[in-house]
Amino acid sequence: xxxxxxxxxxxxxxxxxxxxxxxxxxxxxxxxxxxxxxxxxxxxxxxxxxxxxxxxxxxxxxxxxxxxxxxxxxxxxxxxxxxxxxxxxxxxxxxxxxxxxxxxxxxxxxxxxxxxxxxxxxxxxxxxxxxxxxxxxxxxxxxxxxxxxxxxxxxxxxxxxxxxxxxxxxxxxxxxxxxxxxxxxx
Length: 186
Fold this sequence. Notes:
Helix content: 25-40%
CATH superfamily of the domain at 6-134: Gcn5-related N-acetyltransferase (GNAT)
Structural class: alpha+beta
Strand content: 25-35%
Number of strands: 8
Distance between the termini: 27 Å
Shape: globular
CATH class of the domain at 6-134: Alpha Beta
CATH topology of the domain at 6-134: Aminopeptidase
Order of helices and strands: EEHHEEEHEHEE
């Protein structure tokens, strides 16, 4: 899916652009994910796990999401740097097509500027405009209070918790929290 480029003004007065990633963004996207994975312990991968992702592979991923009717991906550019990325994936199975999963990652230097909120609103808009989506869902690592606050701000509610999903290098475990936002009364 292609998103019509949109300009937003951040809390610090700087202009940012929300847009669908281009093939030319592939190398920067790999770098973005390596960076954000190194800035927090709450993402699924470690920074070094992004070293095996090729620019060519990422370019193919970008091409795929641009052509897909079931994926909606946005990046936010600030001063020509990708500040963050978010996505919504629409389920396609007969029993699951009423659901949409969302995710978001943002460089630490861009936290608290309103980017996460702007991107999340566009994800919700995309799911609403698509139609047939009863609820959106997401998972976050327990303890990530910043993420939890963002999701609750947009009406997501905790449904369950799954313990010990991630095992860290130091041998400790992290649990994930599952949230849903209803777009339609069930």
